[in-house]
Amino acid sequence: MNIVQIYAPTNEAHDEEKDAFYDLLQEVMDKLPKKDINILMGDANAKIGRENTGYDRIMGSHGLGEMNDNGERFANFCLFNKIIIGGSIFPHKRVHKATWVSPNNVTENQIDHFCVSQRFRRSLNGVIVQRGADIGSDHHMLLGKVKLRLKKQGNRKEVPRKRYQVNRLNGATKEDFKLCLRNRFQPLASLEEEEDVETHWSRVKSAFTATCEEVLGYQKKEYNEWISQKSLDLIERRRHLKEQVSSSRQWTYMEPC
Known about the structure:
This is Craniofacial development protein 2. By secondary structure, the chain is an alpha+beta fold. It is about 30% helix and about 15% strand. The strands form 3 sheets. It has a 4-stranded mixed sheet with strand order 1-2-6-3, covered by helices on one side. A two-stranded antiparallel sheet has the order 4-5. Strands 7-8 form a two-stranded antiparallel ribbon. The chain is elongated.
């Protein structure tokens, strides 16, 4: 699987800037194996609209608004590369399609997209906007659901790595460690010289590990809180304010900034 994340120029950008972006994006797509699942997603700044005449192979009729210049460029790019525009296929309410909100919290548009290779169309189970996600952006989170059938690789269980409490190597514990290790090394001195290097190394390693387990013991895994309670309270407060703003909006459609 290959994932390409994009951020395209706005609809008001110069044609030269748009051409340069899509030329570079095409270079990236050309390097991806056609047999792989290729996912193209991100802020395309492109309104594709509902009308899919000429594009029915790569988009449905469930887009928002009308196609603009960026939308036409994006649709042509997807058509050339045989990529399905997921947000146009699945029927949803408007609130679950619009991905961008204007600075005045009035206008919304569908300009972010989640696309997948045409040959893996049946693997795409849904594309929907998650409005409840508190991401601190003028864009809503866009969720694409992809179901894959992967080959079973067998049961390989990774053994968790254990660490010894080396910080205990001081004072009386240090002396106990030296004494215990010395007692384990004494029998090694009488080993026959004919033994190979690997055998010697295995015996030395066993002496060290056994001593560490007996004298030092293993470190206990500690779990630290990655976010403070103050931050959690601020996030909750912001979520409530966002809900109040969302419930009082009136929606229109216009070109994104």
